[in-house]
Amino acid sequence: MQKAYKAVLFDLGGVLIDIDYHATERAFENLGVSDFKERYSQLAQNELFDRFECGEISPQHFVNLLLPYTQSGTTPNQVVAAWNAMLGAFPTEKLKLIEHLEKTTPLFMLSNTNELHWIEVERAWRKVSADPMQHFFRKIYLSHEIGQRKPHPETFEWVCQHMGFEPADVLFIDDTPQHIEGAIKAGLQVHYYRDPAAFYALFS
C-alpha cells in the first residue's frame, strides 16, 4: 500500500512520452554505425552521452563527435534526426491524467535529457496541448540544465530540496530500475513503471 504523498515527481521518457530506443539504433545503423547498441542503451551509456545529458557538451559538438562514426556523406541534420528517432508521442490518456492531477497535487518532472531531445519533446507536446508543459508542472528539472542526472541519490536530494518537499513526501515514477534504486536511497517513495494499467491505478 502506497503511503500518502504530497507531490509527484515524474520521469519523462517511457513514462509520459513514448520512447523507442531501437528506432534510434536502427537509424544510426542506416547511417553506417554498426555498434551503436553497444555505445548507447537505456541501461548503459558511454561517457559522451552522459556528458551531453549534463550539458557539458553543446549540441553542435555532440553531433560533430558522432559524425566520424557514420558513413561518408552523412550530414549533421541526418545525425540529429537519427538521435531524435527514439522520441514518440504523448498519449492522450497521459495528458488527461496530468490535467486531472494538477488540480489537486503539485507535479514536477525530472528527466535525464539533452538539448536536442528537449526541442523535439516540446514539439511533440504542442501536438497534444495548447498549454505549455510548465502550466501543469510546477518545475521541470532537466539534466542538461541542472548539470546532474539520475540515478545519483544526491540528484534526488537536491531536486526534493529545490521542490520544497521532504523526500519521504514525494512519489517518484520512472521506468528505469537504476533510477528507482537511486530514488529509494535518497528516501523517496517510488513506483517502477512497467505496466500502464498499474500506473493509472495509482491515481484511480
Which key terms come to mind for this protein?
2 domains; 5 strands; globular; single chain; 204 residues; Rossmann fold; alpha/beta; DNA polymerase, domain 1; 5-stranded parallel beta sheet; 11 helices
Descriptive notes:
The protein is an alpha/beta fold and 204 residues long. It folds into two domains: 7-19 and 89-201, HAD superfamily/HAD-like (Rossmann fold); 21-84, Orthogonal Bundle (DNA polymerase, domain 1), CATH 1.10.150.240. A five-stranded parallel beta sheet has the order 3-2-1-4-5. The protein is globular. The model has no long low-confidence stretch (mean pLDDT 94). It contains eleven helices and five strands; from the N terminus they run βααααααβαβααβαβα.
Q: Kindly estimate the percentage of residues that lie in beta strands according to DSSP.
A: 5-15%
The CATH architecture of the largest domain can be named as: 3-Layer(aba) Sandwich
Number of strands: 5
CATH topology type of the largest domain: Rossmann fold
User: Quick check: average pLDDT?
Assistant: 94
The CATH C-level class name of the largest domain:
Alpha Beta
Instruction: Output the radius of gyration.
Output: 17 Å
Reported for the largest beta sheet, the result is:
5 strands, parallel
Terminal CA distance reads 14 Å
